[in-house]
Amino acid sequence: ELLATPFAVPHGADWSTGAPGPLFAYHLHQHEYLRCTGPSPAERAAVLADWLARHPRGVGWDPHTTGNRLLAWGKLATTPGMLALEPAAEAALLRSFADQAQTLSHGLEHRLQANHLLSNLLCVVFAGLLVEPSASAAWRRRSAPLVAELGRQIHADGGHEERSPMYHALLLENVLDLLNLCRAAPERAPAGLAPALAGAAERMLDALAVLSHADGRIALFADSAFAVAAEPAALADYARRLGLRVDAAPRGSACLPQTGYVRLAAGDWLLLASVAPPSPPHQPGHAHCDALAFELGCAGLRLVVDTGVFEYVVGPRRQIARATASHATLQIDGE
User: Fold this and answer.
1) Looking at residues 250-276, what average pLDDT do you find?
2) Strand, helix or coil at 169?
3) In angstroms, rounded to a whole number, what is the distance separating the alpha carbons of residues 129 and 70?
4) Which of 68, 160, 170, 240 is 20–30 Å from 1 (CA)?
């Protein structure tokens, strides 16, 4: 489905740019913006052709970028009317899709672990279900480590180990996308994959509801920002259409004991609090100095808010976003 945000196609994009920082480059190369309203099918196809012609190597081939682009291309290709491709362009796109999936399969980010590795695995298996080159069976066999990683990273309470509501929502959409393909082509889905995805998605939906304010949007703990991940209501609707259990958002108090968040509700008041250290200990890249920090709302309005994250470029804005003094928590003698 089209994303509701209008977007102007970047004609003649500088695919090698590094000036705005790596996060900008990642989003430029992931092509998710081509699913926004605005571009015509021909314009979307022109951007893909330009990328194929002018970016054979570089940051666009980093594993995380490659995986997210595979998802974006897969959604474009399977949504009627999204792309206007001549036969030769379609063949080139499929060849590149297979090359990217094979590159990702051999470059899984075990060194980073956490959401990068989980996303890598989701995307490789997605590619293996969607297309059928000679290597696709090997991609589908990545479902065994994927199921194991889901068990490691998604806590029993449904929260993701990195404790970022935004990354939680991004991963949840990936899980739903892969489940969607399993439902569409059950004969190709590895045994046990669909039930594992469905179970993880339902737990993640429950946790996301706990981590959402009365306005329906996520809390901004850890590395989080608005308008990056799909909204919780959109993810819940997606899950319903896949036949999953979706409970109503919690109206009262709730707790995510393994992930380390508490939700306290009383009348019009709602408080969300972070009650765990940076996590996981081996990969705190998305953590902030926010232990015991809280967000507070009243009658659907946010009164005390978290900083979330501005950018990933090292510098004062990044340091401010992560610092103890920028969160609603305790700082004693500068510590």
Assistant:
1) 94
2) helix
3) 12
4) 160
Element (H, E) at 187: none
In 3D space, the residue among 137, 132, 36 whose CA is nearest the CA of residue 79 turns out to be 36
Q: Is the CB of residue 260 less than 8 Å from the CB of residue 276?
A: yes
**Total number of residues shown for the chain:** 335
Selection from 230, 235, 138, 125 nearest residue 182 by Cα: 125
Sheet holding 269-274, edge to edge: 254-256, 261-266, 269-274, 294-298, 301-304
Q: Is 126 exposed, middle or buried (CB count within 10 Å of its CB: 0-12, 13-18, 19+)?
A: buried
The predicted pLDDT at position 310 comes to 83
Dihedral sign for Cα 61, 63, 64, 66, please. positive
The residue among 191, 197, 207 whose CA lies nearest residue 121 is 197
Distances in Å between the alpha carbon of 284 and those of 136, 160, 214, 317?
Answer: 33, 13, 28, 18
Class of residue 50 by CB neighbours under 10 A (exposed 0-12, middle 13-18, buried 19+):
middle
